[in-house]
From TrEMBL:
Entry function: Golgi membrane protein involved in vesicular trafficking.
InterPro entries: TVP23-like
Protein name: Golgi apparatus membrane protein TVP23
Any GO BP annotation: protein secretion
GO cellular component, one term: Golgi membrane
Residues annotated as transmembrane: 20-44, 51-69, 112-133, 140-159
Family membership: Belongs to the TVP23 family.
Keyword tags: Golgi apparatus, Membrane, Transmembrane, Transmembrane helix
Length: 189
């Protein structure tokens, strides 16, 4: 069973603070694994290593990126979390978790970096895939497919999670509005 979402640590910048990033280490690793995988993919010919070593190193970086985004960055930077469970009937159940209202506000800089990189990563890998196709470099196209699948899975998971969080907020607002309206109407009788 997943842990609960973290709240801000003592001594951390104020939630929603515009002066600084609330989670600079999470932002660094969010960018590092993505940039390292793309950099090594583009320049691996300069290192003089064979395809198998390049494949393993880039795949390792892609998996580290997937894990970091899914399990650390999303929780800290935007207060969202998703996972997928296989039900007893064999179906796939998406589970979503978001911060409850009042736990902490999401830092706008953190959120901007997170969502920008989340959307940009599959696009960058698709461009690299197109280049691999044009160069008839089918071996490295496999790496691009892995990168697109992992980054698209995170993107899809967080988009669904964000929509679920928004609908949860709307549901709470509608419930409060309806109960207030009911109390107003029946309280005046």
């Amino acid at each position: 069973m997943p842990d609960t979402l973290p709240t801000t640590a003592p001594g951390a910048p104020a939630a929603g603070s515009e002066q600084a990033y609330a989670h600079p280490v999470a932002a660094f690793f969010l960018m590092f694994f993505k940039a390292a995988a793309v950099f090594i993919y583009i320049f691996c010919g300069w290192f003089g290593t064979d395809f198998v070593i390049n494949f393993c190193v880039i795949t390792f970086l892609l998996v580290c990126d997937f894990w970091t985004v899914k399990n650390v960055s999303g929780r800290l930077m935007v207060g969202l979390r998703w996972w997928n469970e296989v039900s007893e009937s064999g179906g796939s159940d998406w589970k979503f978790e978001s911060l409850e209202e009042g736990q902490r506000a999401v830092n706008k800089k953190d959120s901007f970096v997170f969502w920008t990189l989340l959307y940009a990563t599959p696009a960058v890998w698709c461009v690299l895939g197109l280049v691999a196709i044009l160069k008839l470099n089918i071996d490295y196209l496999l790496l691009v497919i892995i990168a697109v699948l992992l980054s698209a899975a995170n993107l899809m998971g967080y988009i669904k999670c964000s929509k679920a969080a928004q609908s949860q907020i709307k549901g709470k607002f509608n419930s409060l509005f309806a109960s207030g309206l009911k109390a107003y109407m029946f309280g005046r009788s």
